[in-house]
Amino acid sequence: MNYWLFKSEPDEFGIDDLAACKRERWDGIRNYQARNLLRDQVAVGDQVLIYHSSCKKVGVAGVARVVAAAYPDPLQFDPDSQYFDPKSSPDNPRWISVDITFVEKFPNVLPLARIKAAPLLADMVLVKQGRLSIQPVQPDEWQVILEMVRQFG
DNA sequence: GCCAACGTTGGC
DNA sequence: GCCAACGTTGGC
């Protein structure tokens, strides 16, 4: 089983929305590095940190679990969607979705500033390559994050 | 709102 | 295939 971090803007879709709907298609990913991870590595049963970006409380907000592995993102075929891609086709889809389900909402969002300040998390992709929207998380990093949440919350 | 970092596009 | 121009992300 692998660990991941998915970014979302809580104004669009955050941990509370996930808790309310229980299961959600993670769509609209339009970055090749993130796409490749979704397509090749994200598997059913993997665990996911839900990260809130571009908002007041930037940081890790909770946990989700993967319930459906890679399949074509339907929005790429929808001309009315902002994620429509005219260069993609059902025969050869370019963009990938997975489904996740709600697991846990943290009592408090673990702030990015705390993550950046933690020596044990200095090698996190979040710290080193902040812009990637689907990121691998190492098992030891996962443990450190959850321990920090326990102390912070 | 600013701006640094980084990804994508397109001319050559 | 290089690289300049441009667009986007996302923290602050």
Describe this structure in words.
The structure is a single chain. This protein is an alpha+beta fold and 153 residues long. β3 and β4 (59-72) form a beta hairpin. The chain is built from five helices and six strands, in the order βαβαβββααβα. The chain is globular, with a radius of gyration of 15 Å. The mean pLDDT is 95. It is 26% helix and 33% strand. It has a six-stranded mixed β-sheet. The chain has one domain (3-152): ph1033 like domains (ph1033 like fold, Roll), CATH 3.10.590.10. The protein has helices at residues 15-21, 32-40, 112-117, 125-128, 139-152, and strands at 3-8, 23-26, 47-52, 59-72, 96-111, 134-137. It binds a DNA duplex (12 and 12 nucleotides) through residues 7, 9, 31-33, 53-54, 58, 112, 129-131, 133.
Shape: globular
The total count of strands amounts to 6
Summarize the main sheet: 6 strands, mixed
Helix content: 25-40%
Number of helices: 5
Indicate the CATH topology.
ph1033 like fold
Overall number of structural domains: 1
CATH-level-2 architecture:
Roll
Percentage of residues in DSSP E strands: 25-35%
- End-to-end Cα distance: 26 Å
Write down the overall mean pLDDT: 95
Q: Radius of gyration, rounded?
A: 15 Å
Taking strands numbered 1, 2, ... along the chain, how are they ordered across the largest sheet? 2-5-4-3-1-6
Low-confidence sequence ranges:
none
CATH class type: Alpha Beta
SS-based class: alpha+beta
Determine the CATH superfamily. Answer: ph1033 like domains
Spell the H/E element sequence: EHEHEEEHHEH
